[in-house]
Every structure is written in C-alpha cells, then in structure tokens.
Amino acid sequence: MIERLRRAPNRFRRLVLADTPAFLGSRLTTPKNPKRLIVLDNIFPNEYSGFRVAEFHTYFDRLSDTKVYSTGSALFVAGDNRGIAQVISNYEQRFPQYRGRVQAFNPHRKLQGGLAYLMFLDQVMAFLPIIERDRIPFAFTLYTLGGFFLDDPKTIEKLRRINHSPYFRKIIVTQNVARDFINSGAYIDPAKMEFVYGVVTASDYLSKQLPARRKFGQSKNTFDICFVGTKYMPRGEDKGYDVFIETAKALCKRRADVRFHVIGRFDGSEMDISEIGTNITFYGTQRTDFFPEFYAGMDIILSPSAPGKLQPGAFDSFPNGSCIEAGICGVAVFVTDKLGQNITLKDGEDIIIVPYDVTQISDIIDDYLNHYDDLCALGQQGSTTFRRVFGSEAQIEPRLRILQSCL
Predict the structure, then answer these.
(1) d(CA 381, CA 330)
(2) For residues 119 and 171, is the Cβ–Cβ distance under 8 A?
C-alpha cells in the first residue's frame, strides 16, 4: 500500500496524506537527496504573501528539487478561509510549472534532504521537534515579528534553544537592531549569523510591469496618498493606520483634492472617518499583480509604524516590504524610524523620514504638495535606489549563496 501511494499522482497522494493516520504516515518518507532544500512554512502558497512567492520561486528555479511543506495554519492572517489543499490546488493552476513542488505538511512524514529552511522565529520553534527527529540541518531568516521581540525573555529562550540544536547551521538577520540585540547577549553563535539587510520582494516583476506614472495636475486631478499594511491589532496602531487616518483628516481640512487609499484588511470601521468622507477608498488585501497599476497613480505611501505597540519589543522592518515595492514603482516613501533602523537610504533624497506626529506629517506632505516637482524627483531617485538596495541581486543572491553553502 505504501508503494502504491508513492507511485500515485501528486494531487491524489497529497490529498490522501493530509489526513494519514500515524501508524501509516510514520512509514512515509521523501526520497533521499542531499542537495534538496526543504522549505517549511505556514502560509505559502497563498499569493498575498508576495515576499514568500518571490523567494520560494527562486529556490524552485535555482536549487535542485526544492520542496515546500506547508501547514496553512497562518492563512487566516491574509483573510484566506480556504484549506491548505485548496490553496495548493489553486496555486498549481496558476503556476503549473511548479506542480508537485508544494505539499501539505504531514508531521508523520520523514523529511530527507540536505537542508531545511524556514522564516520567522516561531516557525522554527514549531518545526524544531520534527527537524531534530529527522536529523536534518536547518537555516532560517529572522524577519521581524513572528515571535521575535527585542529585550524579551521568551525570545532569548528561543534563540538559545535554537543555538544549542546540533542541526542549526545559519541564521539570516535582516535588521541592524535585531543583529545588535542578538550580539548583545551572545544568544547565537556569531559564526552562524549572516546579515542581509532588507526584505525579499517581487522587485524583478514590478520593475518589468511598470506603466507610465500618472502625475497630479497632468494626467489626474487628485493628489493620492496610500497606506498598505496587515491588520494585526485594533486601529492598526503597530502599522500606523491610526496616524494615517488622523493625517488624512488634517489634510482634508486644508485641501479638497487629496485622496486616500488603503490596502489591507481595513474597512473604515476601525476609526471614525466621517471627516474624510468619500475621499478614502478601501481595497482589501491584494496580490502582487494588482500593484503596478495601483502605484502608478499614487504620489506618496505613508507608513508611520510604531514599535512596541503590538507588544513590548515588537517592531517592523525598515522600510517594510510594502514601502519597498511602492518605492520601486516610483512612489515617494514617507516613513517613521523611531529605532534608527535606516542604514542605507538618504533622508530627503531616497526617502522621507517623518516624525511620529500627525501635525508635522501633515505639514511635510502639504509642503511637498506645493512643490510637486520635488516630490516627483524624490520618487524617481527613490526608485533607482530601492531597485539597487532591495532588488534580486542584493537580496536573493546572498540568500542563495548562504543556503548553497549549507547544502
């Protein structure tokens, strides 16, 4: 029976093994391949997680026989109510070249490959018993959130647990404050830490899909400001949604030609938006292919995120993935940086770092609205720099080299 299951078509085998009893599943294994990268995840192949799509597709293309095993346990974060089997089926219809590369995670399946790869601290902790059971080396990217918080005893305990695992090979750290925090307590062996500043995005796709930008006073009569973020808490205070809305109210009192646009699981019920009226539009969560046309009409993306709001020690990446994608598309990026995370972008040339203050943000935006050519120049220069700093050459290639060194 086991051999017949192994020979069955991928789709049938995946549906059967999703609910395989322990006495049967414990005997199932993936074929041995010391060069195989095994990606363990909890939301892929949901396409709203664009940075995963960009990174994992690269591994499918560049690393032999890469497989992704996904639990689907975080699909709700993207507002996805489908089960993991349906998500995989829809994904394979959209990307038939990757058919069979993503399967539902089965805890009874023995993992056999050269390296397991994960993202986020809590994912490592969730999969660590399986990794150690199957004695497979592993590496992971330490993105912000996902169980990682500065000066947090639980975070320290998790890092030390990982560091002591005989199968731990590499940690890729993406933010300077995360690197400094880890080094401050020697929670991770420095020889196993790699620093790759930034986030993987669909930079190549966006760069190739860009339509002509629509400019205020030329091809449109409105000045457009957007907010793009995931809703993790009421009022979206960690992402700065509350500050965005208050800024929108302040600007509406000054001008009638400003419009506001919100991407994410926000619908206007979080805060009173009566003062903004019809000058705001909500789009829900969107896939990457929505954004080139959308960003072509945006003048500013405002991201006034605030560390410590979600919980003590919580912070966002700088700039976050949405700002990077908008910046690549030529949108002027206005962000806060309360932790001093910026290490590559020039304030006033590539990006505008704004204070965490509604009145001051409104004044800065109003001034750029009155000097629109300067804003356009900022967006154009920012696009060039964002492509250089956060493009595939800067983000994907170092990750590939690190993983290949572990295989």
Answers:
(1) 8
(2) no
Alpha-carbon separation of residue 196 from 141, 182, 228, 328 (angstroms):
9, 15, 24, 19
Q: Which amino acid is at 284?
A: G
Q: How far apart are CA 192 and CA 406, in angstroms?
A: 11
pLDDT, tens only, 266-282 = 998 999 999 999 999 99
How far is 387 from 381, CA to CA, in rounded Å? 10
Does this model's pTM top 0.90? My answer is no
Helix (H, G, I), strand (E, B) or coil at 217: coil
Pair 311, 382 in one domain: yes
Asked if residue 215 and residue 196 are part of one domain, the reply reads no
Query: pLDDT tens, 357-377?
Result: 999 999 999 999 999 999 999
The per-residue pLDDT for range 231-249, each reduced to its tens digit, is: 989 899 999 999 999 999 9
What residues contact residue 251 under an 8 Å CB cut-off, 6+ apart? Answer: 225, 258, 362, 365, 366
Q: What is the DSSP letter of 213?
A: P
Per the structure, the complete domain to which residue 159 belongs is given by: 2-201+392-406
The reported pLDDT for the residue numbered 170 is: 97
Q: Are residues 140 and 227 in the same domain?
A: no
C-alpha dist (Å) from residue 260 to 222, 276, 364:
10, 9, 16
CA distance 369 to 366: 5
Q: Are residues 300 and 284 in the same domain?
A: yes
Amino acid 331 reads V
Residue pLDDT, tens place only, 79-114 = 788 899 999 999 999 999 999 999 999 999 999 899
Query: What is the chain's alpha carbon radius of gyration, rounded to the nearest angstrom?
Result: 22
Residue holding tokens 């647990």?
Answer: 161
Sequence-ordered strand ranges (E) for 214-335: 223-228, 258-263, 280-282, 300-303, 332-335
Q: For residue 97, give the CATH number of its domain.
A: 3.40.50.11930
How many folded domains does the chain comprise?
Answer: 2
Q: Tell me, yes or no, whether 17 and 164 share the same domain.
A: yes
Task: Say if residue 192 is in the same domain as residue 213.
Answer: no
Kindly indicate the confidence band of residue 288, based on its pLDDT and cuts at 50, 70 and 90: confident
